[in-house]
Amino acid sequence: MTDVIAERESKVIQGRTGAWEIVIGLEVHAQVSSKSKLFSGAAVGFGAGPNEQVSLVDAAMPGMLPVLNRFCVEQAVRTGLGLKAQINRKSRFARKNYFYADLPQGYQISQFDEPIVGEGEVEVEREDGSFFTVRIERLHLEQDAGKLIHDLSPTESFVDLNRAGTALMEIVSRPDMRSAEEATAYVQKLRTILIYLGTCDGDMEKGNLRADVNVSVCRPGDYEKYRETGSFKHLGTRCEIKNVNSFRFMRAAVEYEARRQIEIIEDGGKVAQETRLFDPTKGETRSMRSKEEAHDYRYFPDPDLLPLVVEDAWIEEIKQSLPELPDDKRRRFISQYGLSSYDANVLISEQARADFYEKAASGRDAKLVANWTTNELLARLTKDGHDIEDSPVPPEHIAELVALIEDGTISSKIAKQVFDYVWAGEGSPKAVVEKHGLVQVTDTGAIETAIDQIMAANPDKVEAVKDKPQALGWFVGQVMKATGGKANPAAVNDILKAKLGV
Amino acid sequence: MSALTNITLKAALDGLKSKAFTSEELTRAHVEAIEKANPHLNAFVLPTFERAIEMAKASDAKLAKGQGGELEGAPLGIKDLFCTEGVRTTACSNILGEFVPTYESTVTANLWRDGAVMLGKLNMDEFAMGSSNETSRFGPVVNPWKAKGSNASLTPGGSSGGSASAVAADLCLGATASDTGGSIRQPAAFTGTVGIKPTYGRASRWGIVAFASSLDQAGPIAKSVEDAAILLKSMCGHDAKDSTSLDVPTPDWPSFVGKSVKGLRIGVPKEYRVDGMPEEIEALWRQGIAWLKDAGCEIVDISLPHTKYALPTYYIVAPAEASSNLARYDGVRYGKRAEGKNLIDLYENTRAEGFGNEVKRRVLIGTYVLSAGYYDAYYVKALKVRRRIAQDFDQAWAKVDAILTPSTPSGAFALGDKAADPVAMYLNDIFTVTANLAGLPGISVPAGLGADGLPLGLQLIGKPLDESTIFSLAGALEQAAAFKAKPEKWW
Amino acid sequence: MAIDAATVRKVAHLARVAEPEDRLEALAQELNGILAWIEQLNEVDVQGVEPMTTAVEATQPLRDDAVTAGGDPARVLANAPKSADGFFIVPKVVE
Ligand SMILES: [Mg+2]
Ligand SMILES: [Zn+2]
User: Fold this and answer.
1) Pairwise CB contact (< 8 Å): B309 & C44
2) Complex ipTM above 0.90?
């Protein structure tokens, strides 16, 4: 574990009384991409009319009983395996009791002391390319709540239970993030893993992935003591910021909250452990009294459900069906294709990108393909707000383009032009090269003629280059100009050197 | 028409099949009996006579063609705990208001599938919490039996008091009931009827208003052991909508009634001889032992050492589960709502007005034993003692095939007698509650009359899923006891 | 572990049951009576005993992930004390 500590990079905040550090732990709620709810046969989806996706079980009608969705269990196991976590053969559902208008049963069915997934870890890359590890404490399955709408009446709230009972995976991390940047990088990584696994669509705008952010502050050195001893007494009192559903908000919420806590302590006060809400319009967090009202949840095993047993054979079957995970893919891209860590990361950040790349790179100069994919294609797609799935340029065209460069048919410079035509929908790179007459001139005769003409017209330069070989570039430029950029640069260089005697 | 109401379910089914009478005639006879008796007994809280006649006519049409199920045309009463589609269901609590389910409980759906006719909804203790049927929002049920030389109104027991009273008074051929700590067997014992709680998981809990999920089981109250077997067979069966429903076949229980019990080993647990138990209960128990011995059973003294802890265990487990199960009654989606200046007020007022005192008491106890700091000391401790109680039975099954005990520590008592002392009331279930904690089948059979002329019952507890054996034994007891007494009609 | 009026007040609030102040003392008495009787469980040795949460010796059954319910808001709202435009309605909740 000491090496894990060594790689830590805490962000230091200067207060009036000295330096402070931030400690962040996250509870990420990821909606399982199932057709029906965790314990009922009502549909899961977005955009239905109020209470249209509600079964009698979800509405907690008298005598209604929960029956567990096999697919949701499988996704939890799958996610656990993706987080390199321990899968618990036996787990249990418990009731978390509290009253709220979005909670029809008066309790949330969740997992308490016996979750389906135990300890795991996630490797996360920072923006500067360095890595850190976030320890996963657990992953458990639980029901989502319904939705309250407050703006339809000044005196009343409207209750829509469509979301009530939807399956969530709650992924709880240890407090292993030391800055807002690390927290967002972790969630980004988690999101990538979930999407790779297909267990959650990661759609944060729809609330399908959201995080409760636990923030505390401590003095430099305290966190290391916590890591050595495992004792939370070395850390400050934490506040939980509920339901943060964008990376931007997460950054803002952490920064605000850390400064708020430092100010309280420096003013001689004490941070109260509480649940807070981030207000995006004000950029502040505020106390959430509604949730503070009663936090004695009286967890107990749900007597309507039996112990959940996941057999080894089932786990093995799920293991066999796992895709190559982002970390493994990144390592393979670096070793197999000789890519830089940066390029590899860009390409594996989405499964579709990685697939696109591998299709294009097959049999070609893999680094060149990576350059064209990231620098040209992805840049343009991002600019137009498109995903790689709706790229107007298929991987075959990138491969063809690179092949044309490789065999000297076109130069890299011409290739950019070719790419423009292909992007504009004019056809395959080959067709475009043909149509626009962009074939590179490798005919040495033609190149020699051009060079002879230039030398004849510029005797002074011919003399000058003898003393100053760097001036060769001027001749190259002139030859390219004369050939409309189609001359093979290597050939031009060779012939020039021979003729000029440099 | 009393001839059509004082017969057993079995006799009625035979009569229907042989066309001695029609279901409509049979049903109308019961409607008449209810109209006459109900103002006095208060057993039905919602008669559904129109529906009953319709169902009877439909049954007659089937019977005429020689079709129909095993209960075709038989009029029954339904405890108000069972959700019935389109028919108000309240669990006899104010908090459900005029709730009309849009769905039918699995158990009642099974009965209708087999051709039964619904006469109406039966009174009960609020949310099945009570042993005297005095906690109902509709007022207490009166036992058709009266003590010799007294005119005092007696309790039929609870919580299935309406079911027991209606069957004892011949207002229906049988009734559904439910048993969380003894709520089928104690009222059956108090009214001279037969009541069985099957193995936990035999009867689906889907659509039954929940009291304590890990203990609740549905079962019938009937006029004879055979009737109970016929009804239970129809009620039970695997239901995928209840995760705790057992995926096992339902035996043909009626065929086990009348079977020889020769050679069966009967356990007599010494711990059921409790302090202050009336001698006539002891005598009845001895009599039961003698009857079974005569029938060829071997009597074995056994020990169930944790018996005395069963009730305190129950009064932690059941309220804990209930406090959570009853959280859904909040005035938002159905039932009664009391207004409040904000949501919390709405909840607190709705639940204060909607729940009766006994329900509130149990909700508070349940909330307390689950709350931070008390969970381990009370709730987890109770679950461990529960395991000890179940283990006592496991050990007994190595030596015996069934266990014989009294059903209750006394006969029926006067309404109001124990209302002031919750613990005294709870002690009613001292012999029945162990079967709920261990999930075992238990049946109460009327075995005689006490000195005051009131019926008393004997209980048989069986191995898990071995209702068949206790039906055979109950049949033997019934035959030996030849219990033919009926309450005198004073209504 | 005797219960006092303050505990009853707290528990009643947790359970969302309004109990008038003048009832708290009497309720505390009542609950103490029941709890005193329950205390006898302390006599039982439960060392190493696994808590028994159910009488069923089976594991949780699983259902297929198929849409088999919902799509009928009228049925869900049929018994609502107050509803409009397909929603249940409660007094304004401040989050
Ligand atoms: Mg949480
Ligand atoms: Zn959660």
Assistant:
1) yes
2) yes
